[in-house]
Specification:
The complex is a heterotrimer of chains A (311), B (286) and C (251).
Chain A lengths: L6 H26 L8 H14 L6 H23 L4 H21 L1 H4 L5 E2 L14 H24 L1 H11 L1 H7 L3 H27 L1 E2 L6 H14 L6 H17 L5 H15 L4 H32 L1
Antiparallel strand pairs in A: 1-2
Helix pairs in contact in A: 1-6, 1-9, 1-10, 1-11, 2-3, 2-4, 2-9, 3-9, 6-7, 7-8, 7-9, 10-11, 10-12
Chain B lengths: L1 H31 L6 H17 L4 H22 L8 H23 L15 E4 L2 E4 H23 L1 H11 L1 H6 L4 H27 L5 H16 L4 H21 L4 H15 L11
Antiparallel strand pairs in B: 1-2
Helix pairs in contact in B: 1-5, 1-8, 1-9, 1-10, 2-3, 2-4, 2-8, 2-9, 3-8, 5-6, 9-10, 9-11, 10-11
Chain C lengths: L3 E10 L2 E11 L4 E5 L6 H8 L7 E6 L2 E2 L5 H6 L2 E3 L12 H10 L16 H13 L15 H13 L5 E5 L7 H13 L5 E5 L3 H7 L2 E6 L2 E6 L1 H6 L1 H8 L8
Parallel strand pairs in C: 3-8, 3-9, 6-7, 7-8
Antiparallel strand pairs in C: 1-2, 1-4, 4-5, 9-10
Chain lengths: 311, 286, 251
């Protein structure tokens, strides 16, 4: 497949892979835990800057990726522990504040992070068989990372812990009454989500070779949320599709106009006012429409049989 | 030592500014259960509109009034066209107001450009008053005074007027209030417009203090959200306490730990939440 | 040794005294019913016992172990389970999925993040048994919000039973039911094994007298009387509460 794409196309798809991981991480807490976080880009930035800063001193890719995952996860755990004590409204606003805090920190700590100008990334991917810096090799790495991330999430969602988390989203008080320690599950999911977001940020560093505070800004948090919404909240793969659609749109639009934020805002407004659940749900609707005709006839047959038996 | 007092005054003035905008946010939140993420952008809009008026030789006070009027109208339009369709749906509200803020913010950038701007301090309030050997800028005193007046107004509206009672009842039981013949829709539009007007108002008043620049909307939104969280959802009194507190800590923090002032504010919020998950004066949210 | 012992608990919400020195005891195997007019504090009593909120004073003992300070999910682990007056189910999940969740709660692998739940044969088997025992097999794939009200009420009880509790708190199990459904539910309750003690809040007097070993009468957050069904039936004060302007007595 990569042979069909130009360098530019390949870069685009690589970016989509990375954003898809990010989007899926947000989709996890939104769709399976019912948490709406407006500051998820905070974790992305943390992962990205970790690679950028530490990458100046440490060359080991495994170590850097590991740090990004673990540090983001821990920060998610700590902040989650405080944030979940509050209601959903508060959670929303606090996560926004969190994202902005990370942004402000990167912006202000100029000597360490380069401040508003950002910093370049010198780290190079190396999994033990040579440096990987060609677009093609990075493309493969990100593709594999995406697949691994998806599989991991799939396992989680189907596992007992995953089902329980979904149950908590559906009816928290009942889950509590059934005997589940609701807090622990929420923390678990949030930590998983945060570390995955951090991972995507780290990967982005290797890919883009340049990081800036905007990676934690609220515009970016809004963008990843759009990806989840476009793709469909409540499914695992939806956000990945949303990421694809969004990046594509963004690239397309940006080449015509500088007013991309305005267009994005309008898209958001339209999406909300139109009131459907994103692309995956549209696909599901279509699927139901096509297959339900079969089911209707089957149901009617069953009904007729029952009536016959009764008379 | 005298510098400390000036800083304190500055901190309180900023705090009052935050109170004004946070009050609008928390009222909309408390009365209508609506999360309005476009609030910061309305603040920004107010400032920029006033800027245009003033640039066209209009007097500060007139510009202030017109600006507030414009933002209030904006609020009415937003509520009637968009916001009222998402009552009760939190995620939709977030996305909708998020989107609106992007549209508005980008519009501002489009029309007015990206360079930093300021609003001039109105002639009447220029200069400073001296107490002993300390010179206090008059404008900042004015802002503090204005904040106090606003607090008084809110207290009066809430406890003494029919509107206050209606709103309180409307929050508790919307259908019942409607059954009593009061047009709840009007009330909600009015509340939203009021909140928007407050945002615009604080934008104009903040112009000479904070200046105007790209990204000010998200910054002020976050600060006001923190104020609302600390003070408690729906409680403007809580916002007052929280805002002044934050204003002081932030200003003093900027003097002592310039790059960490935001972190300090954020940590303060975390601490408050640990001790009182519903904010200082908040009630349980449905 | 009593199974559940509530000792002089008090709870006020601001100025409203909801529970005032309420005491009661449930013996192992007992069917203990709580009655009282609306607003008497019955559901609040349940909420206090299950630690949905903390009490102002008094103590609660489960098998002589003080449980005031434990979190509500811990109590389930200790053998206490409850249902809700208003259906509190997972509306968007299927009947099967609802039962799954209730069953996992006490399993050792509930923190497992790896092997898919559907492969767990013990869960599948237990779910199957429950579905068959209560005639719900043809409802297994149906979303719970589409079940009939009576079926939902039944599921409400089944979810609480799934954790094999020692004591089950039933909050108005027959509320909103037709006479036929009420009769059905009453029979189900009577058929429950004596290894499970019951603390039931009920309004329907026929059901109350059909199942109760002991009855406690609550009024304005206070215990008026705690005794055998005969004692309660003949008590003057109780009659006063019910016929002298209190809630309706439908028997």
């Amino acid at each position: 497949m990569p042979l069909m794409l130009s360098d530019f196309g390949m870069n685009l798809v690589t970016e989509i892979f990375i954003m898809a991981i990010f989007a899926m991480s947000l989709g996890l807490i939104m769709g399976y835990a019912g948490m709406v976080s407006l500051g998820h880009a905070g974790f992305f930035g943390i992962g990205a800057y970790l690679v950028a800063i530490l990458g100046q001193h440490i060359g080991n890719t495994y170590l850097l990726l590991f740090f990004s995952i673990v540090v983001s996860g821990i920060i998610a755990l700590i902040t989650g522990a405080v944030f979940f004590r509050t209601s959903k409204f508060y959670f929303l606003m606090i996560t926004l504040a969190f994202g902005q805090l990370v942004y402000a920190l990167f912006w202000q700590m100029k000597p360490l992070t380069g401040g508003a100008d950002g910093m370049s990334v010198s780290a190079i991917l190396n999994f033990g068989f040579g440096d990987l810096f060609s677009p093609l090799s990075i493309y493969y790495v990100m593709g594999v990372a995406f697949i691994i991330a998806y599989i991991l999430l799939r396992f989680f969602v189907e596992s007992p812990a995953g089902k329980i988390t979904k149950g908590i989203m559906e009816n928290e008080s009942r889950m509590q009454a059934l005997g589940f320690n609701v807090r622990i599950y929420k923390l678990m999911v949030y930590a998983l989500s945060g570390s995955m977001a951090g991972l995507s940020g780290a990967l982005y560093s290797y890919f883009n070779l340049y990081v800036s505070p905007d990676l934690s800004g609220w515009l970016f948090s809004g963008q990843v949320m759009m990806m989840v919404i476009i793709g469909g909240v409540g499914t695992l793969f939806g956000p990945a599709i949303g990421a694809g659609v969004f990046i594509f749109l963004q690239n397309f639009m940006s080449s015509y106009t500088e007013r991309w934020p305005m267009i994005m805002g309008m898209l958001l407004v339209i999406l909300v006012m139109a009131g459907k659940g994103g692309i995956i749900h549209w696909l599901q609707h279509i699927q139901k429409a096509v297959f339900s005709r079969k089911k209707i006839t089957q149901d009617t047959n069953n009904q007729l049989k029952e009536e016959e038996a009764a008379s | 030592m005298s510098i400390f007092f000036v800083q304190l005054l500055t901190g309180i003035a900023y705090g009052m500014l935050y109170f004004m905008i946070a009050a609008g946010l928390t009222i909309i939140l408390g009365v209508m259960n609506v999360v309005n993420l476009a609030h910061g952008t309305l603040f920004m809009l107010g400032a920029y509109i006033a800027f245009s008026f003033i640039s066209n030789e209009l007097n500060f006070w007139l510009a202030l009034l017109l600006s507030v009027f414009c933002t209030a109208i904006c609020g009415v339009i937003l509520e009637k066209l968009l916001i009222k369709y998402v009552y009760g749906k939190e995620l939709e509200q977030v996305l909708l107001t998020f989107g609106i803020s992007f549209i508005l913010a980008d519009t501002v950038e489009w029309i007015w450009g990206t360079e930093m701007k300021t609003l001039p301090v109105p002639g009447l309030l220029d200069g400073s008053i001296s107490f002993g050997d300390t010179a206090f800028p008059i404008y900042r005193l004015f802002v503090v005074l204005f904040g106090c007046l606003l607090a008084l107004l809110l207290w009066y509206l809430e406890t003494r007027t029919r509107i206050g009672a209606i709103i309180r009842a409307g929050v508790d039981d919307r259908e019942m209030v409607g059954a009593l013949g009061i047009h709840v829709g009007f009330v909600f539009t009015g509340v939203f417009a009021f909140g928007a007007a407050l945002a615009g108002l604080s934008g104009v008043l903040g112009g000479p203090l904070i200046g105007m620049y790209t990204g000010m909307d998200s910054e002020i939104l976050v600060t006001s959200l923190i104020v609302v969280v600390i003070g408690g959802l729906g409680s403007w009194k809580g916002s007052l306490i929280g805002a002044v507190f934050i204003g002081i800590i932030e200003t003093l923090g900027k003097v002592w730990f310039p790059s960490l002032s935001m972190l300090i504010v954020f940590l303060l919020m975390m601490v408050v939440l640990i001790i009182r998950p519903n904010g200082l004066l908040g009630r349980e949210v449905a | 040794m009593s199974l559940l012992r509530v000792e002089k608990i008090c709870k006020s919400f601001k100025t409203l005294r909801v529970l005032n020195n309420v005491s009661l005891e449930v013996q192992p195997g007992e069917r203990h019913v709580i009655i009282g007019p609306n607003g008497a504090g019955k559901t609040s009593l349940f909420n206090a016992i299950t630690n949905q909120f903390s009490i102002d004073s008094g103590k609660i003992f489960l098998e002589e172990r003080e449980i005031n300070k434990l979190s509500s999910h811990h109590l389930v682990r200790l053998g206490m389970s409850r249902t809700f007056q208003k259906n509190n189910l997972f509306g968007n999940l299927t009947t099967e999925e609802n039962i799954h969740l209730a069953l996992i709660a006490k399993k050792g692998y509930r923190f497992n993040v790896f092997s898919p739940l559907v492969k767990r044969s013990d869960i599948r088997q237990e779910t199957e048994e429950i579905l068959q025992q209560w005639n719900l097999t043809d409802r297994r794939q149906m979303k719970v919000k589409n079940l009939s009200y009576g079926e939902q009420r039944l599921l409400e009880v089944l979810l609480a039973l799934a954790s094999k509790p020692k004591i089950l708190l039933l909050d108005e199990p027959t509320s909103g039911m037709s006479p036929a459904e009420t009769q059905q539910t009453s029979e189900i309750i009577q058929k429950l094994p004596r290894s499970i003690s019951l603390l039931v809040i009920e309004h329907d007097m026929e059901v109350v007298f059909a199942i109760a070993d002991r009855i406690t009468v609550l009024h304005h957050g206070e215990v008026i009387l705690s005794g055998s069904p005969e004692e309660v039936r003949n008590n003057e004060m109780v009659k006063e509460i019910y016929f002298g302007g209190g809630a309706k007595l439908h028997a």
